[in-house]
Amino acid sequence: MIRAYYNLSMKEQAPTAAEKALVITQERMAEYGHPADVYRPVASLWSGYMGVVMSPKDVALMMVLFKMGREMTKTGEDNRVDMHGYLLAYERILHREVQNVVVPVTKGT
Fold first, then answer.
1. pTM of the full predicted structure?
2. Residue of 16, 17, 45, 85 with fewest CB within 10 Å of its CB?
3. Based on the number of CB atoms within 10 Å of its own CB, is 35 exposed (0-12), middle (13-18) or buried (19 or more)?
């Protein structure tokens, strides 16, 4: 499935971090639910601790930064897979927000 998604043949190289992250994030969504819902309580906890309002999008981006810091300390594929995964979660949160936007309809004069 992943290879078809990325248009890769079976003879090509091993799955990339991005490919692995796609599979993992799909599994996580099936198990835990949408990242906007999963990250909301984390955002609430972090907001209380930091004294600033944080959103599920902030959680996803902060986790990318956390993994970047790890990668800077000690490089590892799991860091890169996780970075991709958190970026995918961020995109899913953005996508949901766009879907939930209601554009008011105004009557012409």
1. 0.76
2. 45
3. buried
